[in-house]
Write a structure and sequence with these properties.
ligase activity; transmembrane helix; 4 strands
């Protein structure tokens, strides 16, 4: 039955829907940002996982356009060389092949399709959106969620077990997005990182995430160390050695003081049992594993153990090749290299290094795949590169 309010809602919603559709189809940056934001939103406490399907929806109007731009040379990034798709295709192909021996074929098929969508998303929008704009869009997306997390700390649902989690489902997820934001703030320049880095540090501290704190330290140290000249590097290294043991011991004692599980940076090893289960499963299935994302529950969240449990000794090389490619591709950019090292460290404790359905991998993977690579100079034939971000300029003290 129609009511006055339902008619009024339709009158308001109709032009908004038309406007949204027009912008979605005509502006790939808007579609990319919306798809990424909805994917991250799916990891919050208030929205379903099905929002991650927005990634696939983003490709509907733009995948063909990206193919045309790549073949016709109309891409805004046409003069740049991006990371190769070969290591990604090798890994996705191995995921698809593991369907043959998977313990849960439905899950393996679904997860493989998620990788296909993620790869197409990254390849599509790096053709249609200027690479600098991609980082700016992701920076503001993460900044928006970070601000929401800060306000959420004023409410009961912003905390769980004495640990800050903001709007996300758990504290560890909040810490991961915080160190990703910290890295991007360094790329954006001093105007942003001089206030965001302290805020991210405090926020990660109150989440109690040891993995997140290690990731934050890796991002900051690698990014700034990269920018120093030789003398600054030697001086910083000497100061670090002098301060490492006394300062580290005091900080560690403070962080681990307490008797409950809620204490920040807890010393109790809650992952020991799951690690033992993972190792036992690997011993029982050493050659081919369980298939991509088909391991039984309870095997913990170490990305590397999960990789071995899923692919076994025979097929693990595909994941190893992709992880090495992460490092190789990111070495040309200080921030990207810092984010890669932070990701590899964090994934010792969290399972998202090669999990296409994880929104944090979406952020990292798209940033990485849109990182310009060195090109050969036409005159000398040598590979050259220019600083692509403020974070790559020489540090001036």
């Amino acid at each position: 039955m129609l009511t006055f309010y339902s008619v009024l809602a339709a009158i308001i919603a109709a032009p908004l829907a038309i406007w949204f559709s027009m912008v979605w189809f005509r502006r790939p940056a808007f579609a990319m940002g919306t798809g990424a934001a909805l994917s991250v939103l799916s990891l919050t406490q208030f929205f379903p996982d099905s929002l991650r399907l927005a990634l696939a929806a983003s490709l509907v109007p733009h995948a063909i356009t990206a193919l045309y731009a790549a073949t016709r040379g109309t891409s805004p990034n046409k003069d740049l060389r991006f990371p190769s798709v070969i290591p990604v295709a090798l890994y996705v192909g191995m995921c698809a092949l593991s369907i043959l021996w998977s313990l849960d074929r439905a899950q393996t098929i679904t997860s493989t399709l998620a990788w296909v969508v993620l790869a197409m998303f990254a390849l599509t929008f790096r053709q249609l959106v200027p690479y600098k704009k991609i980082r700016v869009i992701f920076f503001y997306i993460l900044l928006g969620f970070f601000i929401a997390c800060i306000f959420a700390l004023l409410t009961p649902f912003g905390w769980a077990g004495g640990r800050a989690r903001g709007v996300f489902q758990n504290a560890n997820a909040s810490a991961i997005f915080a160190f990703l934001l910290a890295g991007l703030s360094i790329w954006m320049g001093k105007k942003y990182y001089r206030w965001l880095l302290p805020l991210c540090f405090v926020f990660i501290f109150i989440t109690g995430s040891r993995a997140g704190m290690l990731g934050f330290i890796a991002v900051v140290v690698v990014s700034f160390y990269w920018r120093m000249n030789t003398l600054q590097k030697l001086f910083s290294f000497g100061l670090a050695l002098i301060a490492l043991f006394p300062v580290g011991n005091v900080v560690l004692n403070f962080l681990t003081s307490g008797e409950t599980d809620a204490v920040l940076l807890r010393t109790d090893n809650t992952r020991e049992d799951t690690t033992v289960l993972a190792l036992d499963f690997i011993k029982e299935n050493p050659w081919l594993g369980a298939g991509y994302r088909a391991t039984p529950p309870g095997l913990g969240s170490n990305s590397y153990l999960k990789l071995l449990a899923e692919f076994g000794i025979v097929a693990i090389f595909a994941g190893v090749v992709l992880a090495i490619a992460y490092i190789s591709w990111s070495r040309v950019d200080s921030v990207m290299f810092g984010l890669t090292i932070a990701t590899l460290i964090d994934c010792l404790f969290e399972d998202w290094l090669l999990t296409a359905g994880a929104p944090m991998l979406l952020i990292y993977f798209v940033l990485l795949m849109s990182t310009p690579q060195p090109q050969k100079d036409e005159d000398t034939g040598k590979k050259v590169r220019k600083p692509y971000s403020p974070a790559e300029q020489t540090l001036k003290l």
